[in-house]
Design goal:
Strand 5 and strand 6 form a beta hairpin. The radius of gyration is 20 Å and the shape is globular. Helix content is 28%, strand content 15%. Helix 3 packs antiparallel against helix 4 and helix 5 packs across helix 6. The longest helix has 22 residues. The strands form two sheets. A six-stranded mixed β-sheet has the order 7-8-4-6-5-9, with helices on one face. It has two domains: 96 residues, no CATH class; 140 residues, DNA primase, PRIM domain (Alpha-Beta Complex).
């Protein structure tokens, strides 16, 4: 239940936030504010020194915002998050999800946040595919471990999982990074065809590959997608512990050993355990 309007818009909150409240008659979403009070500190390291987009929900409609405006915590230009308090300011404005850029601020060369991230999004494009997506995600994690690539895995909050790691403070070569995704996807395809072919053939036609890397593929609609097209100059990814605005589920970090037994209901905000994480780095 939302808190009374007057309790949010009082002098204990930042002036610009109070102005916005009175202007829009905006009430906070109580469970969301309480959640971000718990999760802000763990999410913050993934947002500092990066351009950030936010997803807000008003009357069931999702607003995707990259830039600030008058009366908002960020008044102009790209949204930036510098502290847990900044996260809470946005939480009071119905912000479910934070999306940092893959490419950090080049001027932050002496600290975290200026690094380039490598990201993979493993997704099933049908509701029946989630169990298969878990198998693909687990096998990808094992493949990366054999290659000694340290990585962070998290539930996307919807139909799939994300892999993330830092490449350090380097100049991005986007086409080269896409090529790496295609290479890893090809290796995963061979593993799945060898170890799990019968399981995947129950859903995916034998004439289709198990894994595709283009979200615009019009033919193989039941194949598992590892989308190389999310890798680009203004590419973003939902931060760990953000809440997916459509499902209300947390983009929850997971250990490899937890993937196969994971169920989406494990990511309900009220039940998740918050733990602080570091972005793995592979130079």
């Amino acid at each position: 239940m939302a808190r009374p309007f007057g309790r949010l818009c009082n002098y204990s909150y930042p002036y610009t936030l109070s102005v916005l409240c009175y202007t829009l008659n905006l009430m906070p979403i109580e469970w969301l504010v309480e959640y971000w009070n718990r999760a802000a500190g763990a999410t913050l390291p993934f947002l500092v020194n990066r351009k950030v987009a936010v997803q807000q929900v008003f009357d069931g409609k999702i607003l995707y915002r990259r830039h600030g405006a008058k009366g908002l915590p960020d008044k102009i230009g790209w949204i930036e998050i510098k502290s847990s308090q900044d996260i809470l300011k946005w939480a009071y404005l119905h912000t479910y999800s934070f999306h940092p850029h893959l490419n950090g601020d080049p001027s932050a060369s002496s600290g975290r946040g200026g690094d380039l991230w490598f990201v993979m999004d493993i997704d099933g494009r049908t509701s029946q595919a989630f169990e298969l997506v878990k198998i693909a995600t687990y096998e990808m994690s094992q493949l990366l471990a054999r290659k000694k690539i340290k990585h962070l895995i998290k539930f996307s909050g919807n139909r799939g999982f994300h892999f993330l790691w830092s490449l350090g403070n380097i100049t991005p070569h986007w086409l080269s990074l896409r090529k790496q995704i295609r290479s890893l996807a090809g290796e995963l395809e061979r593993i799945l065809q060898t170890k799990h072919k019968n399981k995947f053939s129950r859903l995916i036609p034998k004439t289709s590959p198990i894994i595709i890397t283009s979200s615009t593929d019009p033919i193989h609609k039941k194949s598992i997608l590892i989308d190389e097209q999310i890798i680009h100059k203004n590419g973003m990814i939902r931060s760990p512990y953000s809440v997916h605005p459509k499902t209300g589920l947390v983009s929850l970090p997971l250990r490899a050993s937890e993937i196969l037994s994971f169920k989406p209901q494990d990511a309900k905000p009220e039940g998740v355990r918050i733990r602080k994480l570091k972005m793995p780095e592979n130079k």
